[in-house]
Amino acid sequence: MEPGQEKQVSKLRRPFVVAGAVVGASLSGWYLYRNFGNSGAAADPIWTRFVNVALIMFVAIYLANLLRRGVESLKKR
Question: How far apart are CA 24 and CA 17, in angstroms?
């Protein structure tokens, strides 16, 4: 890429990232609900919950981005 040229940003980028964030937030909420709802079993420590929620969000957005790239490659054909 030459200096002065801007990289083109896909029009599908934002909707897929937002969808990934919504799915990640939903899964994180479900995880936290299940973790607090365990009666009888000890809940995870707070640092484990924090790490797990961060991982869930990262994976959801990353997979949404991979799905977007697949959709874009299929549209180009």
Answer: 10
